[in-house]
């Protein structure tokens, strides 16, 4: 028999405090019956011998001591089906596209189960995003978690949409899907996302979750878990390779801080909860490839660094958990370069596992290393030129300086709908490397120079 408790003693922000209940479970789903006959949903946030704290999803307006609370005995579950592909849903899984509710094959706990480290397969399959600065120098590998570190006002959303449209495994006819989750976005941004997905046809192979800025902060905490649950279902039940794009993790962490303040928790660094590292890990670590299963979950998480500070707790903790980062540069953005990705602080720790002969191309690693070294030196020389002038540089240094400009203008810069294959990316790389004397290509083996250098290919 279901019991209804009318023992609310306090309502504070999105939280409701009850006493004199029977033992209830953490994260248990709650239904709150208001005196006017409406019902709101909530989740058990904290429980003790004499008090239960419930966070309410739809806000606490209209709640009072006469409201009845019913504990469902189960956690929040997402109704999942392959019919989710092509749908746009709210942060709580409700349809936003005017379509019917999803008829589920099953309902799955959104918190997921921890992946056994022994069952993980080492990621090694290259994913082509069509963006040269990612594919060429910071390659994404199937099963990897690779965040994008950006700043306020930078085009990270455009980069995310471009990746969602273009991502594929070259030479493979396996099912590939995208799960896109946006947290704390404005109505204008939501319309932009929806229109782009529908206009480009990317929606056919995508599931989109949208949590708006005026939605409850509590829903923002469940949105990425909804998305990852949908991704795991498509990957491990339907053998699909799923790319999960989460934007913006900063809004998610702000919701965590807001909930921590409402619970009167002792804050950690800059007011964020002390358990934020563990909480972020519970999201990031849901990416991977499992032995014996064909599907995979790969993650691109986008976070905006407050004040462009890479030492801020959110990017700092994310960097400890994830396998590298892609850094969006305000300096390149001011130059009018899109996508403004700075390859120097960017890193993909699993790149070497997913590139090379039989995966991308045998010269990929050497070309990437050579461009990275030359561009880093060219950036340093720009500072020197500001002091001593270009005339004081040696002939070699001028060549490196010119390479840095060419690198930004031809390799980094591309249009928002330009989908470069890995062969196109490496061809452009060789074209700009050919502007340097062969003697300066010290990181590339002569066999690759003979095989791919434009001067040698022309003379064949």
TrEMBL record:
Has keyword Transport?
A: yes
Report the superkingdom from the record. Archaea
Q: One Pfam annotation, family name?
A: ATP-synt_VA_C
| Any GO molecular function | hydrolase activity
Q: What range does the record give for the signal peptide?
A: none
Q: Which PROSITE patterns match?
A: ATPASE_ALPHA_BETA
Its BP terms in the Gene Ontology are:
proton motive force-driven plasma membrane ATP synthesis
Q: Which InterPro entries does this UniProt record tie to the protein?
A: ATP-synt_VA_C (IPR055190), ATPase_a/bsu_AS (IPR020003), ATPase_A1-cplx_bsu (IPR005724), ATPase_F1/V1/A1_a/bsu_N (IPR004100), ATPase_F1/V1/A1_a/bsu_nucl-bd (IPR000194), P-loop_NTPase (IPR027417), V-ATPase_su_B/beta (IPR022879)
| Entries under PANTHER family matching the protein | V-TYPE PROTON ATPASE SUBUNIT B
Family statement: Belongs to the ATPase alpha/beta chains family.
- In its UniProt entry, what is this protein called? A-type ATP synthase subunit B
User: Whose protein is this, by species?
Assistant: Methanococcoides methylutens MM1
